[in-house]
Amino acid sequence: MNPHDEPQHPAPGGLLKNLNPEQYAAVTAPAEPALILAGAGSGKTRVLTTRIAWLLQTGQVSPGGIMAVTFTNKAAKEMLTRLTTMLPVNARGMWIGTFHGLCNRFLRAHWKLAGLPQGFQILDATDSVSAIKRVIKAMSLDEERYVPKQVSWFIAGAKEDGLRPPDIDVHDEQTRTLAAIYQAYEDQCAREGVVDFAELMLRSYEVMRDQPAVREHYQRRFRHVLVDEFQDTNKLQYAWLKMFAPPGQGQSVLAVGDDDQSIYAFRGARVGNMSDFEREYRVKNVIKLEQNYRSFGNILDAANELISRNSRRLGKELRTDAGPGEPVRVYEASSDFAEAQWLIEEAQALHRGGMDRKEIAVLYRSNAQSRVIESALFNAGIPYRVYGGLRFFERAEVKHALAYLRLLENPNDDTSFLRVVNFPARGIGARAIELLQDAARASGRSLYQSVSAVAGKAGSNLKAFNDLVDSTRNLTVGHTLREILEQMLEISGLNEFYRNDKDGAERLENLGELINAAEAFVTQEGFGKDAVALPVDELAPGAISEGLPHAVAPAQVATPDAETGEIMSPLAAFLTHASLEAGDNQAQAGQDAVQLMTVHSAKGLEFDAVFITGLEEGLFPHENSLSDGDGLEEERRLMYVAITRARQRLYLCFSQTRMLHGQTRYNVKSRFFDELPEAALKWLSPRNQGFGSGFAREYQDAWQRGSGLKSMVGAGRVERPSYAEPPVPASMKKKVAEEHGGLRVGKGVFHTKFGEGVLVTLEGSGADARAQVNFGRHGMKWLALSVAKLTPID
DNA sequence: TTGAGTGCATTTTTT
DNA sequence: ATGCACTCAA
Q1: A341 is near strand B: CB distance < 7 Å
Q2: Where is the UvrD-like helicase C-terminal domain (predicted)?
Q3: Buried b (16+ CB within 10 A) or exposed e, A138-149
Q4: CB within 8 A of A254, min separation 6: which ones?
Q5: From CA A262, how far away is CA A666, in angstroms rounded?
Q6: What strand order describes the sheet that includes A224-227?
Q7: What percent of chain A has pLDDT above 70?
């Protein structure tokens, strides 16, 4: 269909009902490039899904002609779920998924052209680092100078710039070596038949770039491409997109994003892609979604005022019909502990007032800040949930099990081999492994293939390991995924190991959970939404791949491969799934618990009440962000994201004193307070709250810290501890406030040039008296009191 | 092979 | 303060 003579489509009433004019315009935008600036809480997901539903319902496109890309599995899933409630669609024909998920799907179909083995497996970030570590060792390079993590960063960065090892600009020795490591790592990955995350993107980009037939096929196929969170795309992802839907090809590309919520520059996201998109695609349709359906007015006023301080914005202001609502409450605490204590009392009050605990979120800039809050919640016996810990498929025992499974699929996967060759221990030590690695390196073969080259006791132990893997494989041929897992867990000795381990109960549970996950994958997911190769006729010349019989009975057989007719086993599909989706991070996700997370991980979520904690110079905005150019603006966007998470109530708090890295820091309140509209704020008196003043508070403080988190078993499972009065620590008794002419350590001071600060240290006396003051954005200063005019404040 | 002891870094993170 | 990665002795 020619997009330029767009016919009038009958507007199906149900779908478009209740859309505001901007949303309506976005949903029914003509089939040409469009940029949607979607503010926080403006119904972005709704627009995306309604758009797809509308396109399908009006017959402008069939499922096979749609590609919708997101960043997270969660977003992709949500889109799919909402879509299916709007419209009975055959989801299989559509390409809805994450960038990486779609790349995987693409490479499974074109593995040969991509130069990959058919059953290639995917390395997660941790696997990739350990693979790089092996490369560095094999090259006998100094691990101090070439830190595996940093090298991994370098390689991922290069790939995201579309660079292969020969393309690296080797201007110095260091870069030359890095490029050499990159090359060796690539070779190793090829030998082992694995790809990392960045490779998924780059490899599929290259296939599209270098294979005209494939490129033309997909460009013809995808009439409508939709991209979520466009502000988070990196250089490679944008280039990838342009391969599927280049400017001027008549495809409709709908990019949805919010430049004000771009908070991932540090990992390569380029907000600039939005304006590049607008220019390169000659976008006529820029639609702003500014009507907010989430928050009350005061909250939005705060967000708008704050973000207006940023330059280089595409320009957008949120508005609401909901009225001003409650003021934004601000609390100044004396210590991080008092901050946590106050926050908990406030949260309890909200809960007593009928708010679910899971509707209350506590946000912080860095993970280290969660400890005090956790500790306080724990002691108060309030259930809570911390986001961002280890996720299911990242747990050690699960990774062990997956490594065994990978070896069943591909014994030449050295990463997996090394992970489990001596776990559980079977007498294969570092020496044996070194010998084996030497042999493998010498012959250019895998560790598995080199076992026979190792002599003696070590050799026979290694052989026994190989036999173990081989026999498991032989034993489980033709069995269900569940049976394969059960057999593997027994034969490998993992089950027995954790049965005998005194702390093994939870790990055993997780292994059981892994079996469940496999079962669920096979039945519910109808495995291989992502993993299964495309139907044979997918690439038939001139094929209009809409309406193909995609339906495959789930849990039956995998779809045969496009070229050879070979089948991707359920096991291989499950392993792929495990790499692409790390799973949830907490067992009791369903419980009504207060939600703790970093501001970054709060993006995309919303809560009735939000506490933004630790609003102090150096912490938020973070000190490390102030050095680089766009750093402060990104911090401000981060704050903007945090504010706009709140529906009804927003609390901001900061503390005069904070324990960080084992040292007490005296912080100045965040500059962001100066950037919020005073009329929307309500400052709460710090004096009437918490533990009162001085000694009593510090004493309580010290004791609470001492109790720590060590004794905790798990969130929300513990009752309030009954305790005797703790003894007064000696350090407390001796403590005397340092004072000088009305100045006190820990209290505020004013300096005519540097403004407000916090007194950190006082030294010397008389003419020699010096003071150390933290002036926040002006930094830490030493001042001679005989010269500097410091006046106490408060 | 395993345990205790030492050194070191410690913004944000999905796939 | 604390966790983790790595070293060295038993």
Answers
A1: no
A2: 297-604
A3: eeebeeeebbbe
A4: A26, A29, A33, A34, A36, A48, A51, A224, A225, A226, A227
A5: 30
A6: A95-98, A66-70, A224-227, A252-257, A34-38, A285-289
A7: 85
Written as one string, the DSSP assignment of A185-237 is HHHHHHHHTEEEHHHHHHHHHHHHHH-HHHHHHHHHH-SEEEESSGGG-BHHH
Q: Which residue has the higher pLDDT, A150 or A254?
A: A254
Determine the residue type at A383. P
Chain B, protein-covered positions (CB within 7 A): 1-2, 10-15
**If residue A599 lies in a helix (H) or strand (E), which one and from where to where?**
helix A599-602
A197 touches strand B (CB under 7 A): yes
Q: Is A717 a catalytic residue?
A: no
Instruction: Measure the CA–CA gap between A242 and A238, rounded to whole angstroms.
Output: 6
**Gap between the terminal Cα atoms of chain A:** 71
Q: Based on the residue annotation, tell me whether A756 is a catalytic residue of this protein.
A: no
**Which tens digits make up the pLDDT trace of A659-696?**
998 889 999 999 999 999 999 999 996 544 444 343 33
Rounded Cα distance between A229 and A335, Å, is 37
Q: Where do we find the tokens 């009437």? A: A688
For the stretch A232-256, pLDDT in tens is: 999 999 999 999 999 998 899 999 9
Backbone dihedral angles phi then psi of residue A477, each to the nearest 5 degrees: -55, 130
Question: For A452 and B3, how far is CA from C1' in angstroms?
Answer: 32
Tokens 């890295």, residue located:
A661
Q: Is A645 one of the annotated active-site residues of the chain?
A: yes
For residue A696, say whether it is annotated as part of any ligand binding site: no
Indicate if A196 belongs to the active site: no
Indicate the burial class of A487 (C-beta count within 10 angstroms; 0-12, 13-18, 19 or more): middle
Nearest to A135 by CA among A414, A454, A466: A414
How far, in Å, CA of A400 to CA of A395, rounded?
9
Size (chain A), residues: 794
What are the strands of the beta sheet with A780-784, ordered from one edge?
Answer: A780-784, A770-774, A755-763, A748-751, A790-792
Please give the backbone phi and psi of residue A503, each rounded to the nearest 5 degrees, phi first. Answer: -105, 25
H-helix or E-strand spanning residue A744: strand A743-744
Residue with tokens 């956790």: A374
Helices (H) and strands (E) in chain A, counts: 28, 24
DSSP result, A504-547: -HHHHHHHHHHHHHHHHHHHTS-S-TTTSPPPGGGG-TT---TT
A662 touches strand C (CB under 7 A): yes
Estimate to the nearest angstrom the gap between the alpha carbon of A792 and the chain centroid.
Answer: 44
List the beta bridge partners of residue A654.
A332
- A108-117, A298-307, A533-542, A632-641: which has the minimum mean pLDDT? A533-542
Is the CB atom of residue A661 positioned under 7 angstroms from any atom of strand C? yes
- Cα A404 to Cα A468: distance, rounded to the nearest angstrom: 10
Please, which positions of strand C sit below 7 A from a protein CB?
A: 1-3, 6
- Is A45 flagged in the annotation as binding? yes
Question: Residue A363: which H helix or E strand, with range?
Answer: strand A360-364
Tens of pLDDT, residues A101-115: 999 999 999 999 999
Nearest nucleotide from residue A99 CA, by C1' atom: B15
Q: Is the CB of A591 under 7 A from strand B?
A: no
Under DSSP, the state recorded for A365 is: S
Of the candidates A229, A332, A561, A634, the residue annotated as catalytic is: A229
Please check the confidence at residue A646 and state whether its pLDDT lies above 90: yes
Annotated ligand binding at A38? The verdict is yes
* Higher-scoring residue by pLDDT: A786, A709: A786
> Has A537 been annotated as catalytic?
no
- For residues A398 and A585, the answer to whether their CB atoms sit within 8 Å is no
